[in-house]
Amino acid sequence: MGHGWEGVVLKLFRGKDFVFTVTGAEQVTERYRRVHFTDGGLLQAVGVHPTMWVRLWFDNAGKPHQRAYTLVDPDIEAGTFSLEFALHDGCASDWSRKAEPGATIEATVQGTGFEVPDPLPARMLVIGDPASLPAINSLLAVAPKLPATIWFETTHDLDQELPFRTEEHHDLRTVPRSQLVEHVKTELKDQISPDTFVWIACDTATTRTLTAYVLKDLAVPKHRVKSLGYWKAA
């Protein structure tokens, strides 16, 4: 399958292409699915870092469609990892529902990057949703004993059953989607300190709103904020 103009752009920006092979899948909840892969040489070629993501290419009625997913439990030596899909209507979710061992999918690596905050903050402040949960889990593993407050956007009761990898020193606050921005603006300011590190990954509009609030209203230095819009709300 060709990758269209998006693939051409990624090539210009030195995107690297790989083919992943499905080894299995599991239904985590009715609305969340985990698919296991061999990496096609990806991990040995480019390494791995927290919140690392890849672009998968799906067929959408004969046209190429790419979506980004965070690696879950990457194992460089074994050449394996998993990807987690928050299920909804769309070609990516449809593909994950049907994925069986032996199936393959094309992928491109370009644009991913994360630097562990230095110095480490006294507490990480994290804002995300089901689409960014794999990245949140990998972020919490950067410094396993580091306290964190996580504001997590939910849209369904089943979101409470998602595979959070939180520990006793993590303060997980689940918030309905319609209330997320208000809750964060009310509560975040009380946790800001000189060494604050804030990580935000929701839909594009929410991410922009909260990033602007953190940078302008709370005056957190830009190098202590990492944000990325994971998807666009319809």
Describe the structure.
The chain has 234 residues and is of the alpha/beta class. It folds into two domains: 104 residues, Beta Barrel (Elongation Factor Tu (Ef-tu), domain 3); 105 residues, Rossmann fold (3-Layer(aba) Sandwich), CATH 3.40.50. The chain is globular and about 50 Å long. It starts with a helix and ends in a 7-residue tail after the last strand. One of its GO terms (molecular function) is oxidoreductase activity. This is NADPH-dependent ferric siderophore reductase.
The geometry reads as globular
Radius of gyration: 18 Å
Unreliable residue stretches: 7-13
Rounded average pLDDT: 89
Number of helices: 6
Q: Could you spell the SSE succession in H and E letters?
A: HEEHEEEEHEEHEEHEHE
CATH class of the largest domain: Alpha Beta
**Portion of residues in helices?**
10-25%
Short structural summary:
The protein is α/β, with parallel strands linked by helices and 234 residues long.
Features:
234 residues; alpha/beta; Elongation Factor Tu (Ef-tu), domain 3; Rossmann fold; 2 domains; 7-stranded antiparallel beta sheet; 5-stranded parallel beta sheet; 6 helices; 23% helix; globular; FAD-bd_FR_type
